[in-house]
């Protein structure tokens, strides 16, 4: 699953730790999502969408082979 | 929240350091007791350390304001459990029957230690089945 979380986070001037604290997860989780190494739960995906005031589909995009 | 409060709260790094540190000391205590022929003291240190570390590991995430564990940690545990069970299953199904047949044919001998390992792995796998059954009732 690809995502543009890094761009969105940097646009808001947030560090990974600050975004993690805002969402109630660890910095490592945000880092893993940004590096496409971890797909968040639906609950966290909704939290991210809510935080960036957009839909989940705008942040995440399935890979072609998925 | 002030900067002082933020810096004084339990962070994930401190939490992990505490749990692994106390757990490590407990194991060292046990080994030291074994080497120094102080088995009872070593066991006492080990039990105390393990219970304290276990208590912190379980209770701190419930009581702390900071996020010490999250969904990715549970996902890692799930994957690790899956790998462990997979290895146990492959080992159990592919090797153990052959070992018992060879033992019956007097080609090899399954010693007491090997037998203990086999029993432990079997018990682990059985326990996994029970836990899977419990988990299935919730999903």
UniProtKB/TrEMBL annotation, chain A:
Residues 5-59 form the HTH cro/C1-type domain. Residues 1-20 are annotated as: Disordered. It comes from the Archaea. Pfam families: HTH_3. Keywords: DNA-binding. GO terms for molecular function: DNA binding. Signal peptide: none annotated. InterPro entries: Cro/C1-type_HTH (IPR001387), Lambda_DNA-bd_dom_sf (IPR010982). The keyword DNA-binding applies. SUPFAM superfamilies: lambda repressor-like DNA-binding domains (SSF47413). Residues 1-12 have a biased composition (Basic and acidic residues). This is XRE family transcriptional regulator.
TrEMBL record, chain B:
InterPro entries: DUF2178_TM (IPR019235). Keywords: Membrane, Transmembrane, Transmembrane helix. It comes from the Archaea. The chain crosses the membrane at residues 17-37, 43-63, 83-101, 113-135. This is DUF2178 domain-containing protein. It comes from Natrinema versiforme JCM 10478.
């Amino acid at each position: 699953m690809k995502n543009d979380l890094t761009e969105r986070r940097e646009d808001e001037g947030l560090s990974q730790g600050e975004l993690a604290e805002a969402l109630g997860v660890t910095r490592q989780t945000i880092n893993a999502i940004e590096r496409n190494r971890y797909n968040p739960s639906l609950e966290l995906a909704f939290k991210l969408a809510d935080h960036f005031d957009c839909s989940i589909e705008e942040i995440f995009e399935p890979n072609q082979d998925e | 929240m002030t900067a002082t409060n933020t810096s004084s709260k339990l962070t994930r790094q401190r939490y992990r350091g505490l749990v692994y540190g106390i757990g490590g000391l407990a194991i060292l205590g046990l080994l030291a007791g074994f080497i120094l022929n102080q088995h009872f003291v070593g066991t006492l240190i080990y039990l105390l350390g393990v219970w304290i570390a276990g208590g912190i590991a379980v209770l701190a995430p419930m009581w702390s304001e900071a996020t010490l564990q999250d969904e990715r940690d549970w996902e890692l545990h799930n994957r690790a459990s899956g790998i462990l069970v997979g290895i146990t299953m492959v080992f159990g199904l592919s090797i153990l029957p052959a070992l018992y047949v060879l033992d019956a044919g007097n080609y090899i001998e399954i010693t007491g230690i090997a037998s203990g390992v086999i029993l432990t792995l079997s018990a682990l796998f059985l326990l996994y089945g029970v836990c899977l059954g419990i988990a299935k009732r919730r999903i």
